[in-house]
Structures are given as structure tokens and as C-alpha cells.
Amino acid sequence: MPTVTDIEIVEDRTARSRCDEGFLRLKRYRARNRRADGSASPEYPIDVIDRPSFDAVAVCLYARGPAGWEVLTRAGLRPAALFRRGRATCLPEGEYLLLEELIAGVIEPGEVGLDALRRRAADEVREEAGLSLPPAAFEPLGAGFFMLPGIASEKIHLLCAEVPRGEAAAEQDAPGDGDGSPLEEGARLRWRPLEAAVAACEAGEIEDAKTELALRRLRDRLAARR
């Protein structure tokens, strides 16, 4: 498949779309704080972004490489980051066509419990990295967390699994087309030494918060094992 070079906006549907339809639903409330003494605050507006599912899973895959522990990341199309181009930003920045992060996916409605998280992790790893692992191979990597608790209801759950490093190249095209969406086109997989991956987060080369958190948790866990 040819390399993806840009995302073109064909139509802007914002003005005529309802805020409670689509993949993301924007809820707009007026609210007030209830106090222990029975009083209430003045009313104020709250915007909340929901999805049909309130949870997601992110997967930290790691392996023993020639120089020690390595981790697998995936660089994929991320329109929200790309469409910052041309906007007034606080600091100068480059253009984000592919954003490097962990393999991740949304929990489907009806998937409940740790076993469901493990099955979803296995499915996402198979789709996005072409690796087949049993759900039991995935371990929780600490507690779940919110990325944007002021506006987004989604909670992310981190799982990790050790995989064989094999002879795979350090960087390669992601296999297949993921879940079939055009947003899966052009994705790249990359093996990095764990310490180098953490350093890349600090340097701004990897700019995804869940990825940095997972890498640091994994580093601590592996150090504790020693």
C-alpha cells in the first residue's frame, strides 16, 4: 500500500451535526455544587465528552532484546494532532501525521471485567501488531486512569505482556490494515530499548501520555523483579 502523506478534509459537518451523535458525544449541562450545609453554588456550564464505551485498554508489549529489555510502539494516523497545524500554539511544534504510542483500543459495550480487558488486549495486539497471544498472557500494569478528567469520561486500563523478540526488524510496517478503517493505513511498528523509549518521551519524540506512564510503570516493575 502506498505511503500516506496527508489527511484531506473532504467535508466539515460540524455546523449541522448534533452534539449527541457520532463516535464522540458531547454532553452540555448546566450544573451547581451541592454543599454539606444545604446551600448550593451558582449554576455553571459543564461540557463532557463520552463514547458508547467508557473504557479503553492500552497494551505495553516488551521483550528481551540483544541489549536488554525492549518495548513495542506503533505510530499511526491521529487527525486531532495533525489538525493542530497552522494553529496558534504555545510553543513551536512540528506536524503530526503519525503519532507514536502503545497499541490501544476501546472496550466494546458488554465487555466487563478483567478477563474482558485481557481478551480485548489480545484482539488489539493481533489486529495492530500481527501477534497472537492468549488473553492470559496480559497482566494489569497498575490501576486505570483518566487522561482528561475535566472534559472526557474515558478511563484507560494498562496491560502488559512479554513476547518473543525474534528476528523482527527494529522498525517495520504494521501488518494488514488493523480493523479495516482508513485511519489504520500507513502504521509503523518500532522496537525500542526501554530506557531509550522513556528518554524519547522526555525529549518529546514520543508525545503520548499513556505511553510514557506505561513505560515508566513497566521499568519499575522489571527493576523490582531483579
TrEMBL record:
Query: PROSITE patterns recorded for this chain?
Result: NUDIX (PS51462)
Q: Which domain of life is it from?
A: Bacteria
Regions crossing the membrane = none
Residue intervals of the Nudix hydrolase domain: 52-214
Entries under Gene3D superfamilies matching the protein: Nucleoside Triphosphate Pyrophosphohydrolase (3.90.79.10)
Extract the InterPro entries matched here.
NUDIX_hydrolase-like_dom_sf, NUDIX_hydrolase_dom
Q: What is this protein called?
A: Nudix hydrolase domain-containing protein
Give the organism's phylogenetic lineage: Bacteria, Pseudomonadati, Myxococcota, Myxococcia, Myxococcales
